[in-house]
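Here we describe the complex-level prediction in full. Unlike the single-chain runs in Section 2.1, the two entities below were treated as one system.
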Amino acid sequence: MSEGLKQTPFYDVHLELGAKMVPFAGYDMPVQYAAGVMKEHLHTRSKAGLFDVSHMGQVILRGPNYETTARALERLIPMNVLDLGVDRQRYGFFTNDQGGILDDLMFANRGDHIFVVVNAACKDADIAHLRNHLEPEITVISLENRALLAIQGPTAETVMAEYHPRFANMRFMDVDTLPIAGAECWVSRSGYTGEDGYEISIPVAAAETVARALLAHDDVEFIGLGARDSLRLEAGLCLYGHDIDTDTTPTSASLNWAIQKARRADGARAGGFPGANIILRQMENGAPHRRVGLRPTGRAPMREGVEIFADETSTDAVGKVTSGGFGPSVEGPVAMGYVTADLATVGTTLYGEVRGKRHPVEVSSLPFGPANFKR
Amino acid sequence: MKYTEEHEWLRVEGDIVVVGITEHASTQLGDIVFVELPEEGDTVSKDDEVVVIESVKAASDILAPLDGEIVEINDALTDEPSKVNEDPMGDAWFFKIKPSDLSQMDEYMDEAGYKALIG
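The structure predicted for the assembly as a whole is:
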């Protein structure tokens, strides 16, 4: 075991299953199991993959009532929090005064509070940010006593419906509190793979029992961070610190869709979040660079950092790959990255430089495969 | 059969040496998704990067173990890189080299030496 790394409540289970552990955001995490990245990826797309995401930050925001708490959170994120229905979840991001993205997150209206899940690498900074800007009006509670699992794939619903019929009729982004193997779990119908599935917050004391119960199903296998990355890449989903960061704005990241009408320039509660001037102007006029899908036409993977050129000879790069690798379901290399806005049209042929040679890539729509969410 | 510290195996066939990577190396690399081979007729020097292999995790180079001329490449690997995981010691050889100095083989390990290296 590596020194100073934290363990999730599933650590012993990972080792039992032959996981290869690596340091990730201060935790000792499974990058793959005995099956390997390729098989784990394909298993998730055909059956059900179980993911330990307990390293992520789980936070409760509690004020005198939902409206007060929602209005407070709206000061930090450009989303419509106020009108989110009870037991509904939404994707969002914290912005900074320059219009950059501090972290992305999921938030849910749980009636008397807001439940927020943030990235592992950013969670300390996010919690400090929330406390600085929301307390004392809103209480910010970092939950250290809950684990987080995701179950993803076409048979996830069948597996979960054995625990409660409500699992089957939850819609994409619905949230509920449901029992699994005797534990009271907070469940959302969402994920990070492009597949249908659930994300499940579990009291630490019951975490291992719940994981072992789920793993007892024939269709369910634990899946490591390696396949989690190739799954989300095929699904066109951003990884914070790679595809989005403080240097990317919502418009450049092609995330305008995540900013609801109420917060846009002509909305009921326009602006009022950090960087609003820049973000709202870019939503109107565009950004100089855009995040796009990049599909190498050859077989060579183009990984993070590969420079993109307009043609085979020009000296100045027009963009860069921010995530890339092999897509096991696509059966070929896939990537995403930023290119200048004039070249961001789907179908444009550009060139990625790998080991000194330029190979054609096509600007592609995202996701690379069909999304299988339960609408 | 001889082995290099870079986890290549070398099998002498007359005046030709067949080169591949070991089972141990293919397992460590994980699922292999891309192989770029040299061209037949290339003259290479020992330690030149002659093959690129990429797994789902990362890219690695295979170095020429000997000075010589590449006389044949295993083109099938370009279309089916996963063969390197399935049969690294057999069908999934990378290239055949005609060494200019066969005595360069002497510095490489035998099977017992290689087994000791990988533990």
